[in-house]
Amino acid sequence: MSVYCPALMYHRVVPDTEQPDGISVTCGAFARHLAWLREWGYRSVAAADLAAALDGGQRLPRRPLILTFDDGFRDNLTHALPLLQQAGFGALVFPVVEFIGGRRAFGKAKGEPLLAADEIREMAAAGVEFGAHTLTHPHLPALPDSQARSEIADSKRRLEDLLRGEVLALCYPFGEFGAREMDLAREAGYRCAFAVRRGNRHWPSERFRLSRVWVNETTTRRRLAYRLSRPYDWAARLRTP
Ligand SMILES: [Zn+2]
Q1: How far is the CA of 57 from the centre of ligand 1 (A)?
Q2: What does pTM read for this prediction?
Q3: How far is the CA of 174 from the centre of ligand 1 (A)?
Q4: DSSP string covering 47-84
């Protein structure tokens, strides 16, 4: 039995005065997404709930959802969290452990501030869930075994030390993974792992390569409704089996 639980993929939430890029949405767009999701009856669930549903032991609400945030930008606290709280949604944030308290060192949004340890604890106290996004955001499949294992397992342990609680979910940097990375995630004790492939339903065999729903600044109400529908999952599976 597959489990319906769209995991929307966000990175940054920026002020309306900023020009959004490929990994950011403005507060205005984000608030719109949340208002639609609320209107349609969606409710946030935790990674543990999804994992338990995949085990077959737990029923989810009729319209469950997980709002995920990759890379752990500080704006997740300053801009996303107030809007999430207003709309009554939770979030699952994936910081890169070595970069906690620092600045983005690569790619888009280079130089942007990242969440610090006390900010992560503050968000966790407010009900935000955290998952690991490795130690250094490497291209995992290119690493030797020992290094890939350390990126996956040590990031879990260090985030658990910071949070004084269990970290259940992993998110693969750049969405890159193979059979080895899925094995390492299982071996490290994660209960699920998120990829970047598209889709909104999950089979138990896919718990270490969970698909996500892509959203950005220009996502319209109609397009978001489609991406939360069954045909989107079918179409995504045809494209990337
Ligand atoms: Zn990332």
Answers
A1: 31
A2: 0.97
A3: 6
A4: HHHHHHHHHTS-PPPSSEEEEEEEE-BTHIIIIIHHHH
